[in-house]
Amino acid sequence: MPEGGFGATITRQSEDFPGWYTDVVLKAELADYSPVRGCMIIRPYGYAIWESMRDELDRHIKATGHKNAYFPLFVPRSLLQKEAEHVAGFDPQVAWVTRAGGKELDEPLAIRPTSEALIAEGVKDWIQSYRDLPLLLNLWNNVVRWELRTRLFLRTAEFLWQEAHTFHATEAEAAAEVATGLECYRRVAEEWLAIPVIAGRKTPAETFPGAVYTVAIEAMMRDTKALQAGTSHMLGQNFARAAGIEFLDRDNARQAPYGTSWGFSTRMVGATIMAHGDEHGLVLPPRVAPVQVVVVPIFRTEEERVRVAGAVDGILRAVSDSPGQAVRLEVDWRDVSPGFKFNHWELRGVPFRMEIGPRDVAAEQAMLVKRVDRSKEALPLAALAGELAGRLDGYQAELFRRALDFREANTWRVDTYAEFRATLEDHGGFILAPWCGNGACERQISEETGATIRVIPTDAPAEPGACLIDGRPSDRRALFARAY
Ligand SMILES: [Zn+2]
Predict the structure, then answer these.
(1) Distance, CA of 89 to CA of 429 (rounded, Å)
(2) Nearest to residue 242, comparing CAs of 119, 397, 414, 384?
(3) Using one digit for the tens of pLDDT, what is the confidence trace for 455-475?
(4) In terms of Cα–Cα distance, which of 195, 199, 194 is closest to 182?
(5) What is the rounded CA–CA span in Å between residue 160 and residue 146?
(6) Does residue 451 contact residue 466 with C-beta atoms inside 8 Å?
(7) DSSP H or E run through 307
(8) Is pLDDT of 147 > 70?
(9) DSSP secondary-structure letter at 257?
(10) How far is CA 25 from CA 33, 165, 218, 347, 403, in A?
């Protein structure tokens, strides 16, 4: 029996959340460390989760009119330097190639930390007239940002992502595009990953380097900390001007187009782990789960095994014959104890386990066990195939509701700095509080408490108040939290 007993044990989530997270990532075989510090190997089970969210996001991106393309990995230094704020923001994280082909390069090449500069240069000749706009590109690639403190999926020196880059004739069109990008992310987070999010605008201090403004979606993890789950940037004419992109508008005047960019990364695998996981490991929403139902046959004698196998074959046939209900189902015939298998699949977050033994076969039923609360339900074999899709949909909705209830139970509204500090210390979580818009107040709060303004929520109602720090007027509440 591999690893003996009931298999891998993991650190308790309630006692050591970061230790729990690392255990889940490693022991559920999602990812592993690589020879290069800060880089990760994504293992097949982790990659299957990424592929599922990637494919779903790709469908939304294409449905909103964007086309996939590819741009190179290397960015010449001179290009990266064209947009001054951009290069200043990224410089410490950029990895450079200075030697290749056996000699020093005349110009160092950056390994892309993001592709704004390269895209602006690359599309210069494609945009001549307003008829060439909008230009709606999307790239699936990897980027490198040299991080000093790394954590698998959450912060790695190299990560996989999608970066959309668009150009528009007017500012209004670009602003609508910024919202479109964020809405694609909201839908994947909420509908696919069952993670409720709060959308809003970042403060100037948290805005993407070189952008006019940044919007983001923020999610609460099960330790009540925040995780940024996708960002979308209004670039204005900054990058287009720096690259010298001009087009003839409807009035035959030369203009620089307005740009946007937006990104969603393998960080969201980490978000999915931390938004739903529990003491037993991963808890995966069915839509993103590589295996949705695992069948565990239970038997002692060869005669029992044969009887159970007959029933399992019947289940497999019925499930594959059910039109429009493609359930990802796997049967675990490994020669290890049922207890070991239960533990194995619970750690991996499989939504339902189906136990079937000789007594179940005799009663023409199977026992369905729900991962999140281990509740059991006997389902008649005859009806089983037809019932699974509905059970999976129900479970998906239940996990979303559970995450939303958790967020609501851990969200606080406070009006004074003393209350703010006490709430953060006693409960953590999300705190909605008045802020005057001054960067100095924001900085003081962050330095003294470790909580940052995640966003000014889009749906925050107008609500006159007094800033936590200097009492100056605030017209709506900002969302504060400690964050990943
Ligand atoms: Zn203030």
Answers:
(1) 29
(2) 119
(3) 999 999 999 999 999 999 999
(4) 199
(5) 14
(6) no
(7) helix 302-321
(8) yes
(9) P
(10) 10, 32, 22, 10, 20
Residue 251 has pLDDT above 80, yes or no: yes
Report which secondary-structure segment, H or E, holds 386.
Answer: helix 381-409
Rounded to the nearest angstrom, the distance between the alpha carbon of 447 and the centre of ligand 1 is 14
Bridge-based pairing of strands 226-236 and 247-248 is: unpaired
- Dist CA 469 CA 460 (whole Å): 20
Entry field: residues in the chain? 484
474 CA distance to ligand 1 middle (Å): 8
* 272 Cβ contact list (under 8 Å, min separation 6): 49, 53, 193, 195, 284, 285, 288
What are residue 107's phi and psi, to 5 degrees? Answer: -130, 125
Query: Exposed, middle or buried: residue 148 (CB in 10 Å: 0-12, 13-18, 19+)?
Result: exposed
Centre of ligand 1 to C-alpha 480, Å, is 14
Tell me the backbone φ, ψ of residue 129, rounded to 5 degrees. -135, 165
Confidence label for 4 from pLDDT (cuts 50, 70 and 90):
very low
CA distance linking residue 106 with residue 434, whole number of Å: 52
Six-digit token pair at 309? 């196998």
Angle, CA of 97, 101 and 103, to the nearest 5°: 75
Give the helix/strand (H/E) hosting 85.
Answer: helix 84-90
Question: Does residue 23 register a pLDDT over 60?
Answer: yes
Distance (angstroms) between ligand 1 centre and the Cα of 484 equals 24
